[in-house]
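Q: Mind making up any chain with structure tokens?
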Amino acid sequence: MIKLIVGLGNVGASYVDTRHNAGFWFVEQLADKFGISLSHDKKFHGMVGRGMVCGCDVRLLMPDTLMNRSGQAVAPMAKFYNITPDEILIAHDELDIKAGSIRLKKGGGHGGHNGLRDIVPHIGAEFYRLRIGIGHPGRASQVSAWVLSKPSADDRTSIDRALDCGMDALGLLMANQEQKAISLANGFKLPQS
């Protein structure tokens, strides 16, 4: 059962609509859908909330540590509430997946993602990941500028549709239907226009 849902991103007005904040977008959408208010908690280095999500008591976290120090927020919260890695879902942007696609999986490496790179040493790797596709700029030298820039209007619409699917997959995961959740998320395709 998922007890903690973390969205990764960077705080500050200049980052709000940037691709690197796709994890924040997911948690904000969750909070809005389930009527969970988020407030800053310096003990956990981020915006936190608690409420019922798909019939389960869940905590939400959006770290304010900047992306490459995300573990400094996730670890204290997990430890304080005795939440194990397999009870955590971390939503984050994913370069290697096109905008409008998502993937759900449990465990694995950090895949070069700086947020995950910082979290794994703190809590281990056996948490769930909702990987939100943002696409790749094509060249490694352009990655930093890409993730810190705003997606096009079409890409943002595609990402939002994928996040909706992520909500549905989360519902299945919360109902202990892990394989169905993974199949739904990983098989999601945007409707052809």
